[in-house]
Specification:
The protein is α+β, with helices and mostly antiparallel strands. It is built from eight helices and seven strands; from the N terminus they run H-H-H-H-H-E-E-H-E-H-E-E-E-E-H. It has a four-stranded antiparallel beta sheet. Strands 4-3-5 form a three-stranded mixed beta sheet, with no helix packed on it. Helix 4 runs antiparallel to helix 5.
Length: 334
Amino acid sequence: MRNKRPHGNDGADATRRLGHSVLEVLVAIGILGLLAALLLPAVQHSRESSRNVLCKSNLKQMGLAAQAFHETHKSLPDSDEYNIALLPFLDQAALADLIRESSGPGGDRQRLDQLAPRHLPVYVCPSDNWRVYSNSGIGPCQYLINAGSAFPRYYGNGIRKGGRNLKFSEITDGLSQTALFAERLAVYSRLLSAERIPVSQREPIRFQFYIDRDFFERGREEEFAEHCLNPDHHLTHLGGANHADSGMWCYYCVTGPSNGYDHMLPPNRIGCFRGGPFPNDTGGSASAPATSLHPGGVNVVFCDGSVRFIADGVDRRIWRALGSRAGNEAVSSL
């Protein structure tokens, strides 16, 4: 039996049906775009969750290292050099020896710069990819010591004691109710004014800003906090080499262990100086809140070694109580 041949344009129509119409292509692209829109946030959330877990692990290691240091030396390390003092308890004894040998009289600073790492992963939050150069021999430390909830920060009511070694017995509020280290976003101290402009606009919580009133008297922390939290009180830009042209007088906050962070302002808020730019713009006269790029809060390790994620919306009274070591405040569960 003969095969029937297509008549007329039937053959051409069959050939054309092998392709796709413009409408079909557009529908397929739309479906792929929809799938990408649904999957990408989930992937990003999964990655951030992993980074957050690693950040908590870093703080956990630091908390356990601080406890081991206290067990050995019967006190916490010098709050100005804890990042170096804890190295032997973080499996970095050789690096600690190198830093001491190179930093002392006649030390070979060049050898330290050649051999020391640019940063130690345990001291850097993986969610913050801004790597800051530091001349300490171990790079930046983005986990800062608790400087308390009252002025003056350097000798306040927290764990930071301005060069004096604190003992656990002095933390009468309880080790589980007193913060030890928390996150603070890095800022490059050599950042030029022009370079600070986009950074201070995009991520203002990295910086500290001047305000239109002075708060240098003791006991005015609450009034200062209310003033700082209101952007209407941030001074407008007047120019100058040390300030970003971002509509506000701003100043970098050098991320280093000697500075510490404090509990005067809730997490992830813009820090403020206790007054205007000159002549009172010293680091000890500013608030440096705990800050991070984790959505909704920051990680904190307490003196008992426990790590907790503290939400941005934490009650300010509770947050301040967690910053004092002997305030006798009643802290409810977070």
